[in-house]
Design brief:
Blueprint lengths: L10 E5 L4 H13 L2 E3 L7 H6 L3 E5 L8 E5 L8 H6 L2 E4 L5 E4 L2 H7 L7 H16 L5 H10 L3 H10 L1 H7 L6 H5 L3 H42 L1
Parallel strand pairs: 1-4
Antiparallel strand pairs: 2-3, 3-4, 5-6
Helix pairs in contact: 5-6
């Protein structure tokens, strides 16, 4: 919502540095929310460091059924130290503030095999462009050229910022189609780019899913003993 692409959700995603002090503080907060781990793996720094997500559901009346997903390592997302340095801070009052993942890091984290994430990436980038297109920084222009998900916006960006486009063409080759204003070929290239990211994400999760399946089998076996 803060980045301009509001989507109703009862889920809260938390990125955490999997160190004892942080995990202890998180455990206390989860206890206050009467949150229970609802799936494998169990809440453990070992699984967090391997890239698993830990899933909780809250049972306190005012947050009943809210789900909390906790991760420490994400595919192709920077190390937590870098995420923290680039974070966005929202200060609501003297005693309450929120630390959000930066928009570029959030977009990177959203590049998954899930269908719902790709429209969200598009909305996030477009909302950011609409907000800052008046006097953009070089970092913002580069972000738009790297992450825009529609041929129309990419063609507009390529025309407005030819210098930055040229610098990034090696990193994102489909920008050459934006330069040529070939909307059909550009859209096809965007779809292929998304397909590749989905496949990479699927490959990343394959061994982790095997671990989860083994944990489920062990849990079921123990329950039946």
């Amino acid at each position: 919502m803060f980045y301009g692409a509001a989507e109703f959700s009862r889920d809260t995603d938390i990125a955490i540095l999997a160190e004892p002090h942080n995990l202890e503080r998180l455990s206390k907060a989860l206890k206050e929310l009467k949150a229970k781990c609802i799936a494998v793996p169990p809440f453990s720094s070992t699984y967090l460091r391997r890239g698993h997500a830990i899933h909780f559901r809250c049972f306190r009346a005012d947050v009943l059924n809210m789900r909390i997903d906790v991760m420490s390592v994400m595919r192709r997302v920077a190390a937590f130290k870098d995420l923290w340095e680039r974070r966005t801070t929202i200060q609501l009052n003297s005693s309450e503030k929120y630390e959000l993942m930066s928009l570029p890091d959030l977009v990177q984290a959203k590049k998954t095999q899930r269908d719902k994430d790709w429209p969200m990436i598009r909305r996030l980038v477009e909302a950011h462009y609409i907000t800052y297109q008046g006097k953009p920084t070089s970092e913002q222009i580069s972000f738009w050229l790297r992450e825009a998900r529609t041929s129309r916006l990419l063609i507009e960006l390529a025309g407005k910022y030819p210098f930055e486009r040229t610098l990034l063409m090696k990193e994102r080759p489909l920008l050459s189609f934006a330069k040529a204003k070939d909307e059909v070929i550009l859209q096809n290239a965007l779809e292929e780019e998304e397909k590749r990211e989905r496949e990479i994400d699927k490959m990343y999760w394959t061994p982790l899913k095997k671990e989860l399946e083994e944990l489920r089998r062990r849990r079921l076996k123990k329950a039946n003993e």
